[in-house]
Structure formats: structure tokens, C-alpha cells
Amino acid sequence: MTGPGRRPVPDPARRALLAAGMLTLPGLAACTGATGTPAAATTAAPPARGPAAEPSPSGAASPTRTQARRAGGPDITHGPADTAAVALTFHGAGDATLLTRMLAELAAAGARVTILAIGQWLAGEPRMARQILDGGHELGNHTWSHRTMPRLTAAQVRVEVDRAAAELRTLTGSAGRWFRPSGTPHSTPIIRAAAVAAGYGACLAYDVDPLDYTDPGAATVLRRFRAGVEPGSIVSLHLGHPGTVQAMPAMLDLLASRGLSAVTAGRLLGPG
Hints:
Elements: H1 12-20, E1 68-69, E2 76-78, E3 85-92, H2 96-109, E4 114-117, H3 119-124, H4 127-134, E5 138-141, H5 154-172, H6 189-197, H7 218-228, E6 234-238, H8 242-257, E7 261-263, H9 265-269
Parallel strand pairs: 3-4, 3-6, 3-7, 4-5
Antiparallel strand pairs: 1-2
């Protein structure tokens, strides 16, 4: 399948390898790393390699509504199941050089993603906001300092949401459409109240988590992605991890082989 925003479909042999999980990435043997450690609950700047992640939610929703939510839950975890698209969403912090490399891979494929930025990181790398938006991607809010939000008071939660929103407005003129809490895969009533007060709607969660922040190597990231992704999926990924960047071309090839495009969360979910 071809067209704007799609990678060319691989040749039949390559497609067969993808389906069988046998695709070999260049340099995979050298792409293993130490296990990641969750970030501490602190106001210090996030580590250079990117934030630790939240535990993955179990199971996956298969809804048909445009802004679909897990049954009984308030967060958006999945897009419409009848779409030929997937939203790749990134928890945003880490080495700007790695981000620039990933943006180049996305541009080569015509893919678009959503980056939920940590405010402190954006404040230290302000040029990245324009580079992300100029590439046709989407920016959102992943708190100011990546604290474990369920442990915070209501006042502290508001600071995390509001400071990051203010930084986004300063750099881009908009706080962005999406908010994702840190330190938890799901929001709480206190978190949701702060997000709504800051101008966000439902919090953006996910149904696929390859656990790339643990640095398992590009082959493992790809295998986990392959096992979970489906039409309408919202995928949790992370900036600042080399294995994620190295796996990205094969991840995009896999989507193309299934007739799926990588789009922003806004494009997947439609007008809010």
C-alpha cells in the first residue's frame, strides 16, 4: 500500500520475514543495554537517556468509538479498531541527538508520531519543540519533572501539569491537546481534575508497551511491538533509548506490511 504517510510495502520475501518474526536488523548484536531504572520522585531534571516508564496496562481494548477507552476506565487507551492506522506515542526526554536520528527515520517513511514532552527537558532543549512540530508531529504534556504522580498531593499534581503546559505555550503557542501522567499507566481522579483544569480532556494512555525503556535491544522491542500492535493501537515508546531508534525502521516496515500507517494521536482519534 502506498500514499502519503506510508512506507512502501516491503517485497514478498521481506514481508514474510516480518510476519514470521525473523527480520534481522543491522547491528542488533551490539544493541543491548543495561536494564533501565525508574526515575525517582524528584524535581531534578530527567536523566539524559530519557525517563523511566510506567508499568504497562494489561490486556488491550478493541473499541469502535473514535475516542475509545478501556471498559470502565476514563483514559483513552485505543483508537477505532476499523482504522488502518496506529499512533506511536513517545514519553519525551533524552539525548537530542537520538531524537534527531529518529525524526530522520520517521521523515524517510512519511510517518507521524506524538511526543509527550517532559517540561524540564523541553526547557533545556527548546529547539527540539520546533524541530518536532516542523516534522509534522504532535507535542503534548508528560508533566514538568516526571514524578510519581499518584503519590503527590492535589497541589503538587497541578504544578506538574501546569508548569509543563506553560512551557509548551511559551515555546509553541499551545499547551498541546494531550496529557499523559508520569509514574502510572492510568490517571486518578486528582490527576484528571488537574488535566481538565489545564485545558486537557481525557488522559492519553496506551494498549501496547514494548518496555523499550528497559533497553532490551532492538530485536526485543520489535518482537514485543509485533506481538501487540493492531489497527487503532496506541503504542508507548520512549525517547533517549538507542534500541528504540534502531528498531524504528523495522517497526515502520511491519506496519506497512500490515497495511497500517503511523499517525499522530490526534489523527487516529479525530477531533476532540
